[in-house]
Amino acid sequence: MKNAEPILQVRDLHKNFNGVAAVDGVSFDVASGSVVGFIGANGAGKTTTMRMMAGVDLPDSGEVTVCGFDAAADAVQVRRLVGWMPDSYGAYAHLSVLEYLDFYARLCGLRGPERMARVREVVEFSGLQELGARPAAGLSKGMAQRLCLGRALLPRPRVLIMDEPAAGLDPQARMDFKQAVAALQKQGVTLFISSHILSELEEMCDSLLFIDKGRIVHQGLRGSLCAEGEVPRTVVVEIRVAGMVEELFQWLEGAAAWTLTERLAGGAKAEFGLNSEQALAGELRRMLEGGLQVSSFHPQQRRLEEVFVEVLKARGAAAR
Ligand code: ATP
């Protein structure tokens, strides 16, 4: 992905609401065929940026170019190239899932047998086969996400922009979503996906963009936060044991890669120096082989805010 041509370019975007800068000079490229994670806390400016990328909103200044077309001047072409999946969708109460997709397929300019074939393809891809006759309004969160995905895919977009698509999904729906992302990337679709949770996107993205207060604060390939040495790649694990809690403390204090950070009634929280599933599995095995009766071993997800704080701290230290 590294050397791929940019399919989408964002240059110095600005957008103010009532005199407050929601997007404050954002620039980046999206490589063709890549999966980009767009990470930022609530209110950071993700939705506003993405709406301008999709041509749904116009910037106050700056430009978005998709396959060489300007999103403002060539809005029609850009809308054909870019699929937009908002974080909530307006469904019409009287339409079934199939009717809803058919309605949007008409809006995309698809007609006759081509329209029917495309709706069928999208239904199959998004796993909506069983839901065709169900009312489009009132679907569960996971089903509604599939419908939204199907709708966004109807015009066969080259770039798909998704606003918080994984929020609120149960583990199965999340896995289905990951698979859909992989399948779309295989088909050559470029994906741009936002979230306020780093761990939700980290695995499926080639590169990550961090936005804070309307500005890009970090961008790079997946893992670049650590590759650049900015953030130590550690993970905090909550470990519970049946009895033997003193032995657990001793074990952790005697292990070079672990730092005991908190003693709990039935266990401990400890930081492990290498955030890798394989390494963690090895450590769990060593604990069990060492005679500890581990009843639960739970690596804690790093919150976005923590990553930000670390990045910014590391930057401050480097600048001094
Ligand atoms: P979230 O994760 O909560 O959706 P976000 O990162 O997508 O947040 P935006 O929705 O882009 O952030 O909002 C950025 C800032 O712009 C926020 O302060 C928000 O209140 C403000 N904002 C966004 N849209 C509007 C609007 N239509 N009118 C006024 N202010 C707005």
Please summarize what this structure is.
The protein is an alpha/beta fold and 320 residues long.
Oligomer description: single chain
CATH architecture field of the largest domain: 3-Layer(aba) Sandwich
Number of helices: 11
Low-confidence spans:
none
Order of helices and strands: EEEHEEHEHHHEHEHEEHEHEEHEH
CATH topology of the largest domain: Rossmann fold
Helix content: 25-40%
Radius of gyration: 23 Å
The gross shape turns out to be globular
- Ends distance: 34 Å
CATH first level of the largest domain: Alpha Beta
Small molecules in complex: adenosine-5'-triphosphate
Strand order of the largest sheet: 6-7-8-3-9-10
CATH superfamily of the largest domain: P-loop containing nucleotide triphosphate hydrolases
Count up the domains.
2
Mean of the pLDDT scores? 87
Strand content: 25-35%
Number of strands: 14
Q: How are the SSEs ordered, and which strands pair?
A:
Elements: E1 6-17, E2 20-31, E3 35-39, H1 46-53, E4 61-66, E5 69-70, H2 75-81, E6 82-85, H3 97-107, H4 112-125, H5 141-153, E7 159-162, H6 171-186, E8 190-195, H7 198-201, E9 207-212, E10 215-221, H8 224-227, E11 235-241, H9 245-254, E12 258-264, E13 267-272, H10 277-289, E14 294-299, H11 304-319
Parallel strand pairs: 3-8, 3-9, 6-7, 7-8
Antiparallel strand pairs: 1-2, 1-4, 4-5, 9-10, 11-13, 11-14, 12-13
This protein binds adenosine-5'-triphosphate (ATP).
Adenosine-5'-triphosphate (ATP) binds next to helix 1.
